[in-house]
């Protein structure tokens, strides 16, 4: 049996670059003197690594600060324009593509509806591939960036993503009619995306979770659950600072935990799922059954009309109790320090429902773990899925010390 691979000088240098890049990215700007104790690297190593990264164009000066009796210390930061990443949100009715610099400032976006919306609740995967490719071309042209500066594309999709096979990421999306769809292979087909472009494909709730953990309401927590409530329901479980994937990357399918045995039929085909009670689609269906009507052509507008109707107060209170019971399950199962409610519908409903949801969760959860948990709304708005998707190639970029265009198989790290 072969022994462990020995680390080379190149490995050591790459690791040092990664340590410095990550520290400057998340905590910068910092001076060279500050980087030493923060990274546990020697002053000589810091000087060498910083010189390399500056020569590569990855670091830039960001002002200076006074030192105690000496010359001012130059501050350094990761240069936002030294590379670009793309985040893609394959939503329930449309595909959104956004181009970002390395600071995740949005430079361009392209939104396109899926043709005819969802056909009988199913997606045509070829439509999705075509819209992603078209959107990528549009944002690159719209921002006027050189294609070779693109580090990679992250894609958030509904469903379970399995990247363990030779074909790359395969999507199992039971609620959208995708049964082992070879999405990465389709994206890499001739004429779609550039063949050398690294792709990272993950579940949309998990990309939302990454965004909130990096920049939003989850930042600083080691154990958290980020819940996505949109047309469907999902979650990203963070265990000791790392997204929990499970044995086949399907962990976090919170929307398909059973809330009521023999209850309402869910899009997945089962009965009584949480999603069948608290998702935007199910909430609108329950309103329709109670005699409600709306004029908006899309779910976002229809849900806004529901919130404005005084006759829906009882329906919303009932939904808050269902959601609170679902959150209590998360508390009892995972003992998180923080639960964040996001997704476009979660943020739209949040101002009205968050307090009754907290009360319901407290009533259904075990007292001791609930006392250690906060329940709050996401902070990144409706673009959180695309921002989170963009962190997938960015994370690999930081991990590899700023290596560009490595040929990387799909899948979140």
N-to-C CA distance: 27 Å
Characterize the overall form: globular
Assess the beta-strand content as a share of residues.
Answer: 15-25%
Helix and strand string, N-terminal first?
HEHHEEEEEHEEEEHEHEEEHHHHEHHEH
Number of domains: 3
Under CATH at level 1, the class of the largest domain stands as: Alpha Beta
The largest sheet, given as strand count, sense and whether it forms a barrel, is: 5 strands, mixed
Work out the radius of gyration: 23 Å
Runs in which pLDDT lies below 50 for 5 or more consecutive residues are 407-413
- Widest sheet: strand order? 6-5-4-7-11
**Strand elements, count:** 16
CATH homologous superfamily title of the largest domain? ATPase, nucleotide binding domain
- At the third CATH level, what is the topology name of the largest domain? Nucleotidyltransferase, domain 5
Percent helix among the residues? 25-40%
Mean pLDDT: 90
Structural class per helix/strand content? Answer: alpha/beta
Write the layout of secondary structure elements.
Blueprint: H1 9-27, E1 30-31, H2 32-39, H3 43-55, E2 59-65, E3 73-78, E4 84-90, E5 94-101, E6 106-113, H4 125-143, E7 150-157, E8 160-162, E9 170-173, E10 178-181, H5 183-187, E11 199-203, H6 204-215, E12 224-229, E13 233-239, E14 242-243, H7 275-278, H8 280-289, H9 299-308, H10 313-334, E15 338-342, H11 344-364, H12 367-371, E16 374-377, H13 384-399
Parallel strand pairs: 4-7, 7-11, 12-15, 15-16
Antiparallel strand pairs: 1-3, 2-3, 4-5, 5-6, 8-9, 9-10, 12-13, 13-14
Helix pairs in contact: 1-3, 2-3, 6-13, 8-9, 9-11, 10-11
């Amino acid at each position: 049996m072969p022994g462990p691979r020995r680390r080379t000088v190149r490995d050591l240098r790459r690791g040092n670059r990664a340590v410095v890049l990550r520290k400057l990215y998340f905590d910068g700007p910092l001076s060279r003197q500050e980087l030493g104790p923060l990274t546990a690297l020697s002053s000589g190593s810091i000087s060498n690594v910083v010189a390399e990264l500056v020569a590569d164009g990855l670091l830039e000066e960001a002002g200076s600060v006074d030192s105690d009796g000496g010359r001012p210390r130059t501050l350094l930061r990761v240069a936002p324009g030294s590379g670009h990443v793309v985040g893609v949100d394959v939503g329930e009715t449309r595909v959104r593509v956004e181009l970002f610099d390395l600071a995740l400032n949005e430079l361009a976006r392209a939104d396109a509806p899926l043709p005819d919306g969802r056909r009988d609740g199913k997606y045509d995967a070829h439509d999705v591939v075509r819209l992603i490719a078209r959107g990528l071309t549009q944002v690159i042209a719209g921002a006027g960036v050189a294609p070779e500066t693109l580090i990679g594309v992250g894609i958030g999709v509904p469903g379970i993503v399995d990247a363990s096979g030779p074909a790359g990421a395969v999507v199992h999306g039971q609620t959208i009619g995708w049964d082992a769809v070879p999405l990465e292979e389709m994206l890499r087909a001739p004429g779609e995306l550039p063949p050398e472009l690294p792709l990272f494909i993950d579940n949309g709730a998990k990309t939302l979770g990454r965004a909130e953990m990096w920049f939003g309401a989850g930042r600083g927590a080691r154990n958290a659950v980020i819940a996505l409530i949109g047309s469907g329901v999902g979650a990203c479980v963070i265990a000791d600072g790392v997204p929990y994937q499970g044995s086949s990357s399907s962990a976090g399918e919170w929307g398909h935990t059973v809330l009521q045995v023999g209850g309402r039929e869910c899009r997945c085909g089962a009965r009584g799922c949480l999603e069948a009670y608290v998702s935007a689609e199910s909430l609108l269906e329950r309103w329709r059954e109670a005699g409600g009507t709306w004029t908006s052509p899309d779910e976002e507008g229809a849900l806004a009309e529901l919130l404005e109707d005084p006759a829906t107060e009882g329906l919303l209170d009932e939904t808050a109790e269902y959601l609170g019971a679902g959150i209590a399950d998360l508390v009892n199962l995972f003992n998180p320090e923080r639960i964040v409610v996001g997704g476009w519908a979660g943020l739209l409903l949040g101002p009205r429902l968050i307090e009754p949801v907290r009360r319901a969760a407290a009533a259904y959860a075990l007292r001791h773990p609930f006392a250690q948990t906060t329940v709050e709304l996401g902070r990144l708005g409706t673009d959180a899925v695309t921002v989170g998707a963009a962190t997938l190639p960015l994370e690999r970029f930081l991990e590899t010390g700023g290596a560009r265009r490595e040929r990387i198989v799909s899948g979140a790290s």
